[in-house]
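Hi there,

I know you've been waiting on this one. I reran it after we fixed the sequence typo, so this is the corrected version. Both the input and the resulting structure follow.
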Amino acid sequence: MSPARSALTWRLSLFTLILAAIFWLGASSIRVIIGNVLLETGTLEFEEYLPPDAEREIFRLLSIVSLVVIFSYIGVLISSIALLIAKPFPLREHGWLMMSAILFFLFVPVELFTMYLDARMIYLEFFTTADRGQFRELFIARVAALSGTPFIAMLCYYTVIGLAVFQPFRRTNRA
């Protein structure tokens, strides 16, 4: 690959990564806020005061936001791989980038599993006439997935932002 093409690939990947990450992390946070309405605080029990139609609308909103999460995560995954391939600097001198890549790629299996659960909810919403019980079951499976590992993953993703801003473990060549 020519140096000019490599620089273009690197910059385009970085731009796509930043844009997709904004949508992905933002939609993930919105999904948590929307889903929080359904459950009693600190439990996996559903709120009793919500009418069935309101609960069904919340599940619809969760399905729509999950679509944004899935597509933007795929964009982040593809652009991060392209960025690491086309980067113009070695990871050895940029420890922050290496740590960021490890934190991100460590949780790819977790994200793929939760995306599978999200895709099932999207399928139920848009392609079937599923009842409220099926959505409840799938929502609880999503919230309790992998014993809280998705929450730990979110904390790591926000740590990656801090690493990118402050860039610790960056080696400078001083002669």
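Quick highlight: The first helix runs from residue 3 to 36.

Best,
R. S.
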